[in-house]
């Protein structure tokens, strides 16, 4: 049992023990105590769910970036394959500049 689980367990036990009789002499019914414990568990579940959603968003972002990089590499390769004479090298350089700009990579110049 890790520290976080232990602290939640202690909180639930404390709530159950301390909440049975309120200071003004009113007793909480067992379902209300269960609701408090459920709320704590729901809160920890929500935190875990938020963490999973963030991890999923990060994974999606990384996959999207990987796709963009592969697509950029393929467009430059296509320009290279389409070369028929030495002057076509300028088209390759223009494509490299365009791809770098599209990817948000700052650069001063591109050369081969």
List keywords for this structure.
mainly alpha, single chain, 112 residues, 3 helices
Number of domains: 1
Q: Unreliable stretches, pLDDT < 50, 5 or more residues? A: none
Category by helix and strand content: mainly alpha
Oligomer: single chain
Largest sheet: none
Question: Which term fits the overall shape?
Answer: rod-shaped
Number of strands: 0
Radius of gyration: 30 Å
Provide a count of the helices.
3
Strand content: under 5%
Q: What proportion of the residues is helical, as a percent range?
A: over 70%
Which sequence of SSEs, written as H and E, runs from N to C?
A: HHH
| Mean of pLDDT | 74
State the distance separating the first and last CA atoms: 58 Å
Describe the structure.
- The protein is an all-alpha fold and 112 residues long.
- Helix content is 74%, strand content 0%.
- It is built from 3 helices and no strands.
- Helix 1 (3-19) runs antiparallel to helix 2 and helix 2 (30-81) runs antiparallel to helix 3.
- The longest helix is centred in the middle third of the chain and has 52 residues, at 30-81.
- The chain is rod-shaped.
Short overview:
Helices cover 74% and strands 0% of the residues. With 112 residues, it is mainly α. It has one domain (3-102).
